[in-house]
Amino acid sequence: MALNNIPDPDLGEKTAQAGEVSSAPNSEARLSELTFRLTERVKELNCLYGISRLFENEELSLDDLLRGVLNFIPPAWQYPDITCARIKVKRRELTTVNFKETDWKQIQNINVNRRRFGTLEVCYLAEKCAFKEDPFLKEEWSLLYVIAERLGHMIERHIDAGNAQFLYQRERELREKLQSEMRVRVDFTRKLMHELKTPLTALIATSQLLYDETKGEKLGKLAGYIWESANNLNIRIEELHDVVRGETGILKLNLTQVNIKKLLQSLVEETRALCQQNGMTIDLYIKEGLPEVYADPDRIRQVMLNLINNALKYAKDGQKIEIEAVRKSEAVQVEVKDYGQGIPEERQDSIFEPNYQQLHPEERSGGLGIGLTLCKTLIDLHGGRIWLESQAGQGSSFFFTIPVKDIRD
After folding, report:
1. Phi, psi dihedrals of residue 352, rounded to the nearest 5°
2. Could you give the angle at the alpha carbon of 244 between the alpha carbons of 239 and 247, nearest 5°?
3. What are 283's strand-pairing partners?
4. pLDDT reading at 409 higher than 80
5. What does the pLDDT look like over 40-72, one tens digit per residue?
6. Which long-range contacts (CB under 8 A, 24 or more apart) does 188-194 make?
7. What CA dihedral angle connects 89, 92, 96 and 97, to 10 degrees?
8. What whole-number distance in Å separates Cα of residue 303 and Cα of residue 291?
9. Angle at alpha carbon of residue 231, lines to 225 and 237, rounded to 5°
10. What are the contacts of 382-389 at 24+ separation with CB within 8 A?
């Protein structure tokens, strides 16, 4: 074996050592670069974290938030000592203490609701990296964009909160004004009721006495007419008072368990003679097993009498009124049906409005036109609903429901 073919045992070790020496400067440079980048990223993350925590504080004003953001910016940039910043939004302009506009700057729009609302600027106070056209790192441009975007969201939130506060305050003022006006209206109505009912009560009593004294005579008939008219006026006044109290939320119900079957039977018997006087019949249909309801019996009677009288006034040509009661889930549904001319479809939406008579003045009933309005008010207070189904020439059906369960539970 030739000597020159014998491997030198130190050759590999020497070669490795030579390679390590030659690569050492590159490794140190690479490590230094990685350390620099890691440090910059940590600074950026600290900036974003600080700004996020700042935005969580709902007690800070908008100016305080903007100043807080400005304070987080310089430490996050590559050269904190010569970094300054400015935020311009509408009529506000806030800066770091050392701010000075220079040629070495970056600008990002602040958008609110997708529209330009202001700008965020970062400047260097001295030239750095003169051999570069842009002294800022691309990561700093990205950071500036993210901060500006978050500022936009934060400003949008503050604007919405400010608008909400303004609307709340406005609503509160309007509510207080409305409540004051309602109190005035109720007080005026109460005084009006008193002024009307005082002489009316005397008129009803006097006409009743006069009728009793002159019964069977012509004067007795006149006294009877006076009594009937005065009594009807008294009913209209009570209805008006109930409507006003219902609108203002002071009308209360005396809820109790009510046997709706017995109540309806009593009403039918009570009104049968009146229907016969008007040339009409009245029939009642009740399904077996009808449950009791929670209701104010006096108010349900009031609703039924209004609906029956309504049918007598407007459906005399129908010759018949039918009342039906059935159970519907957790409620009892009552229908009052007539076979008159019906109500045109274009008028049905306004039938329960207080000004129905004003909307359709040709339908003159001699009343205030608030009977159906009162019916709706009373049924709403019971937690039920009332509605109409009608076709012109085929009669009308008024429905209402009363809950089986106590609405106070």
Report:
1. -95, 5
2. 125
3. 322
4. no
5. 888 889 999 999 898 888 788 888 999 999 999
6. 189/240, 189/241, 189/244, 190/241, 193/237, 193/241
7. 160
8. 19
9. 140
10. 382/253, 382/255, 382/294, 382/295, 382/296, 382/299, 382/300, 382/407, 383/407, 384/331, 386/352, 388/343, 388/348, 388/351, 388/352
How many whole angstroms from its chain centre is CA 275?
46
Distance separating alpha carbons of residues 80 and 75, to the nearest angstrom: 5
Q: What is the pLDDT of residues 308-359, one digit of tens each?
A: 988 888 777 768 899 999 998 889 999 999 988 888 888 888 888 765 543 4
Domain boundaries, given as residue ranges, for the chain: 38-206, 256-403
Hey, how many other C-beta atoms are within 10 angstroms of the C-beta on 353?
Answer: 15
Could you name the CATH architecture of 38-206?
2-Layer Sandwich (3.30)
Q: How far apart are CA 348 and CA 110, in angstroms?
A: 54
Of 90, 71, 260, 257, give the one whose Cα is nearest residue 158.
Answer: 90
Contact between 301 and 312 under an 8 Å Cβ cutoff? The reply is: no
- Kindly state the average pLDDT of the residues 219-232: 79
Token pair for 408: 């106070």
Tokens 């993350």 correspond to 45
Q: What is the pTM of this model?
A: 0.50
Could you identify the residue written with the tokens 């409507």? 243
Q: What angle do CA 393, 396, 400 make, to 5 degrees?
A: 170
Q: Which fold has domain 256-403?
A: Heat Shock Protein 90 (3.30.565)
Both tokens assigned to 372: 């159906």
Contacts 24+ apart (CB under 8 A), 85-93: 85/120, 85/121, 85/122, 85/123, 86/120, 86/121, 86/123, 87/118, 87/119, 87/120, 87/121, 87/151, 88/118, 88/119, 88/121, 89/117, 89/118, 89/155, 90/117, 90/118, 92/62, 92/63, 92/66, 92/118
38-206 and 256-403: same fold?
no
Q: How many residues does the chain have?
A: 409
Please give the torsion angle defined by the CA atoms of residues 353, 359, 362 and 365, in that order, rounded to the nearest 10 degrees.
Answer: 20
